[in-house]
């Protein structure tokens, strides 16, 4: 360690780092050690049960996901950071209750958070390195085998709740997480040891597809977020009617969480809705050709599912919408789509309207 670091008070340095993080738009920063043994055991049980579905990457990389020092040798601390994303768009419950509207998870209505958060983390890491003149820093945002919620819980940012989301008692759960792995031996923050869910299980009760096996345990194969985003093939016909008008992700378990009454709207302009996607009609979105879709989703996390799955998801939502000639006509125009996946879900939707 350099003389400069040895001469400094680690606590004062950490407070400086928190200030820099706030300047970059982060709402909170916590520091943890790298002991994730309890979470490693949970992950192994979850994977053994097959709850990951097609997300085979959850089991890749050996123990690197739960052992930070194996992913980045030399790591002894992890800085976990929170960036809020709740925006000022249309009321999500109002959109959900209108079967002719398309519900898109609130986190993806603005620009892709991966690039924005990663850039801010990299800036923070460089500032720390520049201040100390040394050190190892690696920033991650949903892009590597990292147990981000487990690390954030150990860093005191909140608790992993019954809906498996991280909840902060002052800010709810509408936020992104990012991490910086470092060999800098900063003092750790007190870990969150209490889970303040109590007897509440509103998140479990509201889940449209009954994806929760029990408190704190999610079977991703039934989760609408998994089905609309991660799942690449045909969606189980038994689950389709339960998906309603949700075409990309699902926020139900957050919308009913009482802790989210404390969530504050973000001031980050890049997280504000674009192209009216917070309150758009199903028919309008289904009418987009691939060029329009590419233009309207540029720089958005929506891009990750591709145009084919975009149409697949919309076809299901249109099959769940109330009958109208406009819907049937729109579906018929996609009957001969080159994708067999799209064709299958369009036929299902037409059958739902008695028009096959």
Quick summary:
The protein is of the alpha+beta class. The chain is built from 15 helices and ten strands. Among the domains are: 3-87 and 110-182, no CATH class; 281-356, no CATH class.
SSE layout and pairings?
Blueprint: H1 3-7, H2 10-23, E1 28-32, H3 37-48, H4 68-71, E2 77-84, H5 92-96, E3 103-104, H6 113-132, E4 137-140, H7 148-154, E5 159-160, E6 166-167, E7 175-182, H8 202-206, E8 212-214, E9 217-218, H9 224-230, E10 246-248, H10 252-255, H11 282-286, H12 290-296, H13 306-320, H14 325-332, H15 340-352
Parallel strand pairs: 3-10
Antiparallel strand pairs: 1-2, 2-7, 4-7, 5-6, 8-9
Helix pairs in contact: 13-15
Architecture overview:
The chain is of the alpha+beta class. Among the domains are: 3-87 and 110-182, no CATH class; 281-356, no CATH class. Helix content is 37%, strand content 11%. It contains 15 helices and ten strands. The chain has helices at 3-7, 10-23, 37-48, 68-71, 92-96, 113-132, 148-154, 202-206, 224-230, 252-255, 282-286, 290-296, 306-320, 325-332, 340-352; strands spanning 28-32, 77-84, 103-104, 137-140, 159-160, 166-167, 175-182, 212-214, 217-218, 246-248. A four-stranded antiparallel β-sheet has the order 1-2-7-4, with helices on both faces. A hairpin with a 2-residue loop joins strand 8 (212-214) and strand 9. The longest helix is centred in the middle third of the chain and has 20 residues, at 113-132. The chain starts with a helix and ends with a helix. 41% of the residues are buried. The model is unreliable at 1-8 (pLDDT under 50).
């Amino acid at each position: 360690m350099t003389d400069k670091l040895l001469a400094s008070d680690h606590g004062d340095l950490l407070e400086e780092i928190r200030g820099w993080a706030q300047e970059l738009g982060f709402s909170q920063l916590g520091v943890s050690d790298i002991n994730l043994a309890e979470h490693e055991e949970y992950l192994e049980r979850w994977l053994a049960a097959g709850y990951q579905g097609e997300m085979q990457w959850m089991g890749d990389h050996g123990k690197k996901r739960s052992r930070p020092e194996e992913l980045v040798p030399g790591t002894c601390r992890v800085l976990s950071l929170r960036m809020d994303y709740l925006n000022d768009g249309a009321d999500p419950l109002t959109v959900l209750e209108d079967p002719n509207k398309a519900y898109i998870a609130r986190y993806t209505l603005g620009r892709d958070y991966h690039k924005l958060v990663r850039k801010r983390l990299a800036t923070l890491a460089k500032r720390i390195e520049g201040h100390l003149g040394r050190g190892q820093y690696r920033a991650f945002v949903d892009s590597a085998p990292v147990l981000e919620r487990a690390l954030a819980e150990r860093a005191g940012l909140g608790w992993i709740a019954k809906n498996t989301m991280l909840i902060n008692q002052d800010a709810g759960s509408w936020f992104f997480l990012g991490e910086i792995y470092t060999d800098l031996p900063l003092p750790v923050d007190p870990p969150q040891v209490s889970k303040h869910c109590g007897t509440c299980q509103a998140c479990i009760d509201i889940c449209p597809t009954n994806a929760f096996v029990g408190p704190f345990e999610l079977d991703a194969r039934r989760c609408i977020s998994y089905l609309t985003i991660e799942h690449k093939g045909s969606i189980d016909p038994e689950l389709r009617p339960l998906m309603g008008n949700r075409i990309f992700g699902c926020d139900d378990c957050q919308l009913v969480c009482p802790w989210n009454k404390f969530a504050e709207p973000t001031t980050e302009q890049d997280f504000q809705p674009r192209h009216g996607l917070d309150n758009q009609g199903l028919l309008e979105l289904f009418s987009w050709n691939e060029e329009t879709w590419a233009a309207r989703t540029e720089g958005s996390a929506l891009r990750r599912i591709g145009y084919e799955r975009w149409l697949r998801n919309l076809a299901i939502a249109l099959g769940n919408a109330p009958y109208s000639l406009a819907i049937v006509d729109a579906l018929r125009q996609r009957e001969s789509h080159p994708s067999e996946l799209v064709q299958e879900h369009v036929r299902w939707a037409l059958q739902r309207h008695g028009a096959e």
